[in-house]
Specification:
Elements: H1 3-12, E1 16-19, E2 28-31, E3 34-40, E4 49-53, H2 56-65, E5 69-71, E6 80-84, H3 91-107, H4 111-121
Antiparallel strand pairs: 1-2, 2-3, 3-4, 4-6, 5-6
Length: 132
Amino acid sequence: MTPQQFIDTALWFPEAEETEPFDPGVPVYKVAGKMFALLSGSDANGSASVSLKCDPDLALELRAQYPAVTPGYHLNKRHWNTVALDGTVPDDELVEMVWHSYRRVVSGLRRADRDRLLAVLGDDMPPVPSSG
């Protein structure tokens, strides 16, 4: 998944917005003012990365399954994973990780916001980016 495909995926979610509260060029994706994703620039290998909120047990499973998934960089390592966008994590899996992150954040919102957003989202998932 390219950084632009990630951006398109993150902004697909109901009421998702892009902000840059930390530094210019470091987009943060929020719902109801709460962060569910952060896109970082290229690392030493030339890969961008994304940090996503995650259930602690699932976070450990994903880290064991994919070398590109590491504890959240500069975030609570129990609840956040950082994923290198180096092509080693399948796009459908990455889309599912973003969906999970969004739902984790929405589940912590006040009831009126949570119910509204989950009703709009339903069981829908963002489309998996095409490779061509």
